[in-house]
Each structure stands twice: as structure tokens, then as C-alpha cells.
# Entry
Amino acid sequence: MEQIMLEVNETIARKWAMSSKDIQRQAVRLIEQFLSKETPEMASDIVAGYGRPDDQVLQQHFNKVQSRLPEHLMLLDEIGKIASQNGLSQHKLDKLLAADE
# Structure
């Protein structure tokens, strides 16, 4: 848990000081519930800060993947040719894949 400081008028501060711990806990729960709701102003901060990389990191990763795609496709073609030369046909591949299901 973290502590936060709220600025309130004197009347609210006095009422808070005179309130029971139960009332104070209820008030804290209400504040938590209110702030837990995503508002448009908070949306970008929440998305970027909670387990999701920021847009720049995502774009860099996408660009890296796209730049390597032709190389990857050539590698797959090469593997396919080698498999074909060793007797693997589409029919045999389909049978092998069906056996796994």
C-alpha cells in the first residue's frame, strides 16, 4: 500500500479526524473505487504503465520482425525443399499432422 495526501477544507479535515477507523476505511474504499474507474484522461497512462510496453517499444519490435520476415520466409522455403528432397510430400505431412490430433 502507498499513502497519498488529499487537500480538503477544514470542515472535512475535522470530520475525518473525528471519524471512526471504520468510517475512514469506508471512505478510502470509496476513493479507491472512484479512482479505479478508467477515464479518458487516464486511459493512455493506464495502458502504457500496466504490463504493456509503450507504443515506441511495440513499433520497434514490429519493425524488427518485419525486417526479418523475408529472411525467415527464405529459411522456411529452404527447409521445405530439403524435406521434399528427403521424401516428405504434402500427403505424408498431412498424415503426420493428423496423427498428432
Summary: DSSP finds five helices and no strands in the chain. Helices lie at 10-18, 21-36, 40-49, 55-85, 90-100. The chain has a mean pLDDT of 83. The radius of gyration is 29 Å.
